[in-house]
Amino acid sequence: MQNRRVCITGMGVVSPIGIGVEKFAAGLRSGLSGIRSLQNEGNANLAPRVAGVVDIDFRDYLTATKIQGPDRASLFALTAAQLAARDATNAEPLDLSDAGVYIGTGIGGIGALEAAYEEFFVRGGARIKPLSVVHAMNNAPAAHIAMEYGCHGPAMTYSTACSSSAIAIGEACRAIRHGYISRALAGGAEAMLLPGIIRGWEALRTLAIVDAVNPPSSCRPFAKSRTGLVLAEGAAILMLEEFEQARQRGARIYAMLDGYGCQTDATHLTKPDANGQAATMRAAMADAGLQESDIGYINAHGTATLAGDIIETEAIKLAFGDLAKQIPISSTKSMHGHAMGATGAMEFIASVIALTRGFLPPTINLFEQDPECDLDYVPNRAREGVQLKHVMSNSFAFGGSNAVLIASKPNL
């Protein structure tokens, strides 16, 4: 079995704090909040909510023909893939005919599905759109990307809740390592800011209470005053390539994708498990051939739920022992919200930005830490002038599906 090295040569992100790597990085550095109040749009049964909303005119990125029909999640995916593909090219477009497409999504084209349900249950169903099923299916984003770029490698979809896109990236990495493909577009997309979905999350009782005075500050990972997670939308996709191939074509190499751990708690559908999370972090470090002392920064899952932040803190202590207090950690969800199936890829890009640009993204809205969350969470302001060699990104999901990715500076 081959064990080729995998590198990152392109990144595309569509997020509530910026579209494209430059704007996303600027948002991270400035501690920008992309969280804002949602309008209920006549749904009186919905409580006031906030979310990480992407302001985008798809006509700026996609042709009018491509915009017609696909669900918002697929349009996010196409936009992020375009940005990643352009970022990875030199003078000429890349031939992606042999590339794979590996996409994570929690719930796929739920907008198309909800529209069909509304048409059926409210108006009798006479005008359900003919392509509702294919726009709603979970693999629609991956299929649209494969068709757009003529990718004839595997087009794979992973749906493991919050870890979906991290697992998609990790599995693409394994496929390149083992020689099945030489490059892949890998990441995730999500667009679930819809009345029915929000109502379901309300029933689960995990959503943040809106700060009436300052709604953008409602997401407060690791803070004593945290009240829950804030939903978000968006997409993030990376171009992954076999290292020697990328070097031979003169590609800019952002980082190496050296470590991937994927393990399952197997304990509870919604309650996370510190032992399972710690085991996944250890697995990623073992995969990368690294020790605990090598990791210079952790982008935490950090959802701002009451139990989740404490358990992740405990897991980091289990994985890193006495070194845990020395490692800077942040939750960028405090800025962009929880983009569910897209969030792992979004946060991995944030980690690569930290690695390559010499600053640590902050955990904003952290003015008083929970005493049980007693690590260094880079509160409120970015930390500048930091030289990193290896960074870790955690993604821990409902169902106990955990994924951890490690990026390293390339040794060219």
Mean pLDDT: 94
List segments where confidence is low: pLDDT < 50 over at least 5 consecutive residues: none
Note the quaternary state here: single chain
> Structural class of the secondary structure composition?
alpha/beta
Reported for the largest beta sheet, the result is:
11 strands, mixed
C-alpha Rg (nearest Å):
20 Å
Q: How many separate helices?
A: 13
List SSEs in N-to-C order. Answer: EEHEEHHEHHHEHEHEHEHEHEHHEEEE
What is the number of strand segments? 15
Q: Helical residue percent?
A: 25-40%
Strand-residue fraction? 15-25%
Describe the structure.
The chain is α/β, with parallel strands linked by helices. The protein is built from 13 helices and 15 strands. It has helices spanning 21-30, 64-67, 72-88, 110-123, 132-136, 140-149, 164-177, 195-204, 243-248, 274-288, 306-320, 333-336, 343-357, and strands spanning 6-15, 18-19, 35-38, 49-52, 100-104, 155-158, 183-190, 234-242, 255-264, 297-299, 329-330, 359-360, 383-384, 390-396, 401-408. Strands 1, 2, 5, 6, 7, 8, 9, 10, 11, 14 and 15 form an eleven-stranded mixed beta sheet that branches. The chain has a two-stranded antiparallel sheet with strand order 3-4. Strands 12-13 form a two-stranded antiparallel ribbon. Helix 7 (164-177) crosses helix 13 (343-357) and helix 10 crosses helix 11.
Give a quick summary of the entry.
Helix content is 34%, strand content 19%.
Architecture blueprint of SSEs:
Layout: E1 6-15, E2 18-19, H1 21-30, E3 35-38, E4 49-52, H2 64-67, H3 72-88, E5 100-104, H4 110-123, H5 132-136, H6 140-149, E6 155-158, H7 164-177, E7 183-190, H8 195-204, E8 234-242, H9 243-248, E9 255-264, H10 274-288, E10 297-299, H11 306-320, E11 329-330, H12 333-336, H13 343-357, E12 359-360, E13 383-384, E14 390-396, E15 401-408
Parallel strand pairs: 5-6, 5-7, 10-11, 10-14
Antiparallel strand pairs: 1-2, 1-8, 1-9, 3-4, 7-8, 9-15, 12-13, 14-15
